[in-house]
């Protein structure tokens, strides 16, 4: 009986050690992949030293068990050992490449797919080992049953004589059972500490614990795959409000934290791209209409209103008077609900919100609109907007224009920042257009003066020609009188 139990126990230990050996490889794989996704040393939960130590201990146990069982596989077992040692070396190289930010070398190791050559060796070894263990257990059971049938009387005598021995055997079996339970409990606690803690404190048996470990590793691999593909809606199965605090520092908690950080980075990238594309398109709009300031102000007002999904936009341009202190703002363009509006409006400096923003030079965002301040008009009637933003458009620290946008939704921070940056582009374009307009007027004035001067020169030339003709006629007449006088004297 003792021999049969020992044979079964040895076979079970072989299975457990083989499972631990494979788990060691899976932990190396998950650790490297997790660290590859987010460079945080916390994701290297399985160090190379732990991996090598686990390999040494597991193969030391297998060597001892095989020696006890008399099992030998000189062809596949050395290859299996070499394969696990090679995988540990590969894991060390992968971690080294990742820490050196050498993704190409890491991907080259990953794409080499070591499993294609290793798994056939593992499969051949496992099949031969399983067949040996099954045969060993069957032989032990047959010997046990044969001994029972042949030696019933002898066993009864031995039972009476060997009660103390039986007690020792029972105590040994009980101790071994306790050791196995302690080993399984330790495995379960490590799973909770490093993988996922479901909050269950009851012992559910060896099969439940081992299956739970494997399932949690599969969950981690699936979670990492989905997050890396951009699926930020993925959930960790089994994680809820009751056990969330238990999983802050283990692999499940770290992966969830990684997902949240990656989602935040992805959102910031989308906002940055949105702003960059908006400014690029705005530059094109400005370039196509910069020759005419009225067209320029209307086109940029239309573009900004549509781009931030507002319902109404107004652009006020600074009108300066060099001959007096009558500087003021002129409503240059209004756009609402895909329609151009024509409204004549003057705003004095300091008057109302627009005039105050000109003085303060700071953006104003209102979510509580003053009563009767503005309405968004459509075919359905008038409605008060939910958000009003007024942005000073500055060029060289001088406010050239002010844009006022009304929307049914609250503008986000990156949208307001986009408007402020766009204001710099537009202020520069308006200043350039105004300077071009002034230059054009000066050129026209100079051309007019030049034309007047040319006309005056022509008139002067004609007068000179007439004067010369008159003088010539006078000289001719004088000569004629002189000739007549000479003739009379003779």
Automatic annotation (TrEMBL):
It comes from the Bacteria. It comes from Marivirga aurantiaca. Keywords: Membrane, Transmembrane, Transmembrane helix. This is GAF domain-containing protein. Residues 452-464 have a biased composition (Basic and acidic residues). Residues 481-490 have a biased composition (Polar residues). Residues 292-440 form the GAF domain. Residues 452-490 are annotated as: Disordered. The keyword Transmembrane helix applies.
């Amino acid at each position: 009986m003792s021999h049969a139990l020992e044979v079964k126990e040895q076979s079970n230990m072989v299975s457990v050690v083989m499972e631990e050996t494979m788990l060691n490889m899976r932990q190396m794989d998950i650790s490297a992949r997790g660290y590859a996704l987010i460079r945080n040393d916390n994701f290297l939960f399985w160090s190379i030293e732990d991996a090598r130590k686990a390999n040494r201990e597991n193969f030391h146990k297998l060597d001892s068990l095989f020696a006890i069982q008399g099992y030998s596989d000189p062809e596949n077992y050395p290859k299996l050992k070499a394969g696990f040692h090679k995988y540990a070396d590969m894991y060390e190289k992968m971690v080294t490449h990742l820490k050196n930010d050498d993704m190409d070398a890491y991907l080259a190791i990953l794409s080499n797919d070591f499993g294609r050559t290793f798994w056939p060796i593992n499969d051949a070894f496992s099949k031969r080992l399983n067949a040996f263990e099954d045969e060993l257990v069957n032989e032990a059971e047959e010997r046990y049953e044969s001994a029972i049938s042949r030696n019933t009387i002898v066993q009864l005598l031995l039972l009476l004589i060997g009660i103390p021995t039986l007690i020792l055997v029972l105590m040994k079996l009980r101790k071994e059972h306790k050791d196995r339970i302690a080993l399984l409990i330790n495995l379960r606690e490590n799973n909770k500490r490093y993988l996922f803690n479901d909050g269950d404190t009851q012992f559910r048996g060896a099969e439940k614990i081992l299956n739970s470990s494997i399932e949690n590793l599969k969950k981690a691999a699936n979670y990492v795959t989905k997050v890396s593909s951009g699926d930020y809606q993925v959930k960790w199965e089994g994680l809820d409000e009751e056990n969330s605090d238990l999983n802050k520092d283990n692999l499940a908690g770290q992966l969830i934290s990684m997902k949240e950080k990656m989602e935040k980075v992805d959102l910031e990238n989308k906002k940055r791209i949105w702003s960059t594309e908006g400014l690029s398109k705005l530059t094109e709009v400005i370039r196509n209409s910069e020759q005419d300031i009225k067209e320029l102000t209307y086109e940029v007002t239309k573009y900004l209103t549509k781009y931030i999904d507002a319902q109404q936009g107004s652009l006020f341009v600074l009108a300066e008077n060099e001959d007096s202190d009558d500087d003021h703002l002129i409503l240059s363009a209004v756009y609402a609900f895909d329609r151009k509006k024509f409204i004549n409006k003057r705003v004095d400096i300091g008057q109302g919100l627009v005039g105050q923003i000109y003085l303060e030079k700071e953006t104003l965002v209102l979510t509580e609109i003053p009563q009767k301040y503005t309405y968004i008009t459509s075919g359905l009637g008038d409605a008060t907007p939910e958000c009003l933003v007024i942005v000073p458009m500055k060029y060289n620290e001088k406010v050239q224009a002010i844009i006022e946008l009304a929307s049914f939704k609250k503008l986000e921070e990156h949208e307001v920042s986009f408007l402020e940056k766009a204001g710099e582009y537009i202020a520069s374009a308006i200043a350039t257009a105004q300077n071009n307009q002034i230059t054009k007027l000066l050129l026209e004035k100079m051309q007019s003066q030049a034309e007047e001067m040319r006309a005056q020169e022509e008139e002067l030339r004609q007068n000179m020609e007439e004067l010369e003709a008159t003088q010539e006629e006078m000289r001719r007449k004088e000569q004629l009188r002189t000739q007549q006088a000479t003739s009379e004297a003779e």
